[in-house]
Write a structure and sequence with these properties.
Elements lengths: L1 E4 L2 E4 L3 E9 L5 E3 L12 E4 L5 E3 L8 E3 L8 E5 L1 E10 L9 E11 L1 E2 L8 E12 L15
């Protein structure tokens, strides 16, 4: 499985959204979040804390019902392409700092199943580039005018 996200541009104090897109290998499905039973491993997207960007709780799409061969109950799963949306907010009050690129580091944990068996839980790295822009340009870029 692979997971990617497009670069996000935020101004100091601004809220935005990251879309993490996971591509699930053909013939496999991963458990949804929430999982259909408490003992099952749900897909889980987590990010490390970052001092300049606050990361909110991921919004998972509803799963689709799927029954493994030889079982009597449906599992809630994702197949093909999965899109998870995550709210983000650029920290910073004054907004006088220079523009900067930072990277949010995360992991998408999942358990994949094919028609016959579920594999051990696994994870894939998720890196999100965020361009942080100041509310106003740094003072060095301002032109000083005299009224004299």
């Amino acid at each position: 499985m692979t997971a990617t996200a497009r670069k996000v541009i935020l101004t100091a104090g601004q809220r935005g959204q990251v879309e993490v897109v996971a591509t699930i290998r053909k013939g496999f499905r991963i458990k949804a979040n929430p999982a259909s039973q408490p003992f099952l491993v749900p897909s889980l997207l987590e990010f490390e804390a970052h001092e300049r960007v606050a990361v909110g709780s991921p919004k998972y799409p509803p799963g689709e019902p799927y029954r493994l061969r030889g079982t009597t109950e449906d599992l809630s799963v994702y197949a093909g392409r999965l899109s998870i949306r995550v709210p983000v907010t650029a920290r910073g009050g004054s907004g006088t700092e220079s523009p900067d690129d930072v990277v949010l580091v995360g992991r998408l944990r999942y358990q994949a199943c094919n028609e016959e068996v579920c594999l051990r839980p696994s994870s894939v790295a998720v890196l999100v580039a965020v361009n942080l822009r100041p509310l106003r340009p740094p003072a060095a870029h301002l032109t000083k005018y005299s009224t004299e």
